């Protein structure tokens, strides 16, 4: 942590509020292009709802395909946010400061996007409320809470609500800052949103204590959410490859792997686009890559265990599924790409510090991880359904249609669009955290080396 | 509206001197406060350490959430007693998951409400303020019931090295 330079608060305000107080040249064209893609996606979704799921490649016996894979993928991405933010706050890790807000945002927007997929996958989205809410007192029919398909929306709604509130509370001091730097309608908006923030010791204490308390509350929710998502599959006894007792921790650690990688991607983009070299530094990528090595290796152990447990029982259908997953075209090609991109290429590269501190390499390796992690979900969900089993009278090979691919692309455009829209009104890096870092830093001389030391409160 | 003044400093040391001076001059705790654009270590300005009850809020929320979850999971299942997969109508494991999520959700919502209330927010008339505070300046604000003490406070702020004093 020796790369920091002393920054005054006026400079910090000017640099980190450059998205809100000015409009970068690239912002409008990028948002416009993304807006067009989002619009196309919305039209395609509307068409699909109008025509029915026949326009997708879903057919007997593969009824869960690209939509459910992408749903699990975005829920996984959302896990980085609170995990990074909460763990780093609880452990008072100094390098958390530029990371937390971006990570929390990623949670909120990827969850919002994830929720769309089961909704449209249902074919008749207006009926989904019937599944998840006690809805019809006159008929006395209520949702079956024993189904993971009920537990899942309950868990995700809890996570989304908690994450959004967490994000807002941590935004309060920066909203006060924006109120002080703006005029007109923007000033009025920030005045209302900042709730009259002044920055007295009581308010700062509540930020600190409240942040730690919320982190402690959000962490168990974060673990529960992807566990429950995994039970959508794991409690289905009829599908080989799904019915596994290790799915809950396996999904959680896989989600952390893909989520932290997504945070790396986002931080690299933030550094390049807003020119935040002083705030998002190579040391932050170094720290995230070290974390990723541990997480990825843990995840690899679970992948190995999943295969071991599947094969150890010598259950013929299970062995047949694994044989298909790993050795039959096209699944074998996907399996090789999955293994190379999710682990075999990026993790050995991250062992070298010159890779960990090279932002371009970190950017591309983090994208590789997410290609691999999307494929992992696809390889878990689809082959189990696609394998030919007795007593199924018809089979169709599953090929995602253009409609499904368009909606898949829409989801990436939609998350990026929301992020950029957010960046126009709210800072992506917490300013008060950056300034606190300056206040709590003191240069100390050790021999002839000047070391920036971090002062930490006793409690 | 009560009279208040704001002394502005660029460094924490003179602001802490002003806070000490105000105490020595007989100003009561709670009538003066320090405003900063970033959190400083607790007690950095010799300020009154605020007491709070934030830890009660999540417990209170969790109790409400748990109670609602017990009601939701048991009453709805008993009201529509459809046996699925031979499982009991009140299937404890499945109920626990919903109870857990609702307990945590209510705990988080109550904590957020607690943070807002304990921060004394929303406060739409926050009183005297200066926008330079979010640029690193430090404000020492004093509120008076007795306007005769304004001169004493100004003198303390000037003695500590206030760069500017604002009145409201």
Task: Give a description of the structure.
The complex is a heterodimer of chains A (about 450) and B (about 170). By secondary structure, chain A is mainly alpha-helical. Chain A has one domain: Formate dehydrogenase/DMSO reductase domain (Formate dehydrogenase/DMSO reductase fold). Chain A has 18 helices and two strands. A two-stranded antiparallel sheet of chain A has the order 1-2. Chain B is an alpha+beta fold. Chain B has two domains: about 5-50 and about 125-165, Alpha-Beta Plaits (2-Layer Sandwich), CATH 3.30.70; about 55-120, no CATH class. In chain B, about 45% of the residues lie in helices and about 15% in strands. Chain B contains four helices and four strands. Chain B has helices spanning about 10-25, 55-80, 90-120, 150-160; strands spanning about 5-10, 30-35, 140-145, 165. A four-stranded antiparallel beta sheet of chain B has the order 2-3-1-4, with helices on one face. In chain B, α1 (about 10-25) runs antiparallel to α4 (about 150-160) and α2 (about 55-80) runs antiparallel to α3 (about 90-120). The mean pLDDT of chain B is about 90. Classes of the chains: A mainly alpha (about 450), B alpha+beta (about 170). At the A-B interface, α1, α7, α9 and α18 of A face β2, α2 and α3 of B.
């Amino acid at each position: 942590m020796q790369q920091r330079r002393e920054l005054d608060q006026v400079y910090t305000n000017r640099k980190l509020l450059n998205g809100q107080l000015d409009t970068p040249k690239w912002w409008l064209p990028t948002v416009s292009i993304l807006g067009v893609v989002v619009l196309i996606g919305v039209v395609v979704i509307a068409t699909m709802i109008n025509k029915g799921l026949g326009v997708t490649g879903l057919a007997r016996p593969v009824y869960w395909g690209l939509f459910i894979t992408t749903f699990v993928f975005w829920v996984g991405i959302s896990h980085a946010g609170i995990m990074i933010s909460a763990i780093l706050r609880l452990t008072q890790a100094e390098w958390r400061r530029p990371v937390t807000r971006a990570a929390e945002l990623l949670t909120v927007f990827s969850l919002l996007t994830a929720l769309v997929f089961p909704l449209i996958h249902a074919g008749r989205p207006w009926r989904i409320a019937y599944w998840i809410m006690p809805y019809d007192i006159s008929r006395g029919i209520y949702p079956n809470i024993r189904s993971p398909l009920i537990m899942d929306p309950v868990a995700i709604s809890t996570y989304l609500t908690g994450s959004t509130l967490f994000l807002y509370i941590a935004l309060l001091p920066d909203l006060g800052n924006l109120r002080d730097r703006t005029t007109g309608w923007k000033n009025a908006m920030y005045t209302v949103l900042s709730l009259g923030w002044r920055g007295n010791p009581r308010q700062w204490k509540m930020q600190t204590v409240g942040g730690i308390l919320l982190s402690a509350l959000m962490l168990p929710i974060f673990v529960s959410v992807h566990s429950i998502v995994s039970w959508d599959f794991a409690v289905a006894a009829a599908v080989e490859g799904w019915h596994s007792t290790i799915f809950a921790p396996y999904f959680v650690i896989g989600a952390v792997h893909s989520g932290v990688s997504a945070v790396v991607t986002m931080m690299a983009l933030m550094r390049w686009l807003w020119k935040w070299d002083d705030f998002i530094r190579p040391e932050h990528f170094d720290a995230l890559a070290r974390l990723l090595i541990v997480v990825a290796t843990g995840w690899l152990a679970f992948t190995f265990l999943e295969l071991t447990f599947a094969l150890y029982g010598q259950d013929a259908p299970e062995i047949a599924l694994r044989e298909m997953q790993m050795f039959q075209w096209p699944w074998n090609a996907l399996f090789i790409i999955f293994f190379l991109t999710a682990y075999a290429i990026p993790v050995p590269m991250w062992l070298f510090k010159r890779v960990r501190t090279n932002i371009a390499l970190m950017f591309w390796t983090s994208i590789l991880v997410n290609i691999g992690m999307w494929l992992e979900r696809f390889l878990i969900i689809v082959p189990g359904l696609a394998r030919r089993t007795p007593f199924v009278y018809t089979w169709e090979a599953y090929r995602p249609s253009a409609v499904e691919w368009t909606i898949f692309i829409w989801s990436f455009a939609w998350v990026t669009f929301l992020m950029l829209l957010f960046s126009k009104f709210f800072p992506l890096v917490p300013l008060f955290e950056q300034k606190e870092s300056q206040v709590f830093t003191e240069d100390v001389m050790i021999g002839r080396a000047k070391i920036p030391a971090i002062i930490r409160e006793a409690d | 509206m009560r009279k208040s003044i704001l002394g502005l400093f660029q460094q924490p040391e003179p602001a802490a001197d002003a806070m000490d001076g105000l105490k020595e001059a007989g100003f009561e705790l709670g009538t003066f406060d320090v405003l900063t654009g970033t959190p400083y270590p607790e007690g950095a300005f010799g300020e009154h350490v605020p007491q709070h009850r934030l830890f009660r809020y999540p417990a209170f929320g969790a109790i409400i959430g748990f109670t609602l979850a017990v009601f939701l999971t048991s009453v709805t299942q008993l009201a529509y007693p459809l046996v699925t997969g031979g499982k009991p109508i009140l299937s404890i494991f499945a109920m626990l998951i919903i109870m857990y999520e609702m307990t945590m959700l209510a705990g988080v919502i109550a904590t957020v409400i607690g943070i807002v209330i304990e921060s004394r927010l929303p406060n739409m008339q926050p009183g005297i303020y200066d926008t330079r505070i979010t640029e690193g300046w430090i404000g020492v604000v004093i509120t008076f019931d007795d306007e005769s003490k304004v001169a004493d406070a100004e003198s303390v702020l000037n003695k500590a090295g206030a760069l500017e004093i604002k009145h409201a």
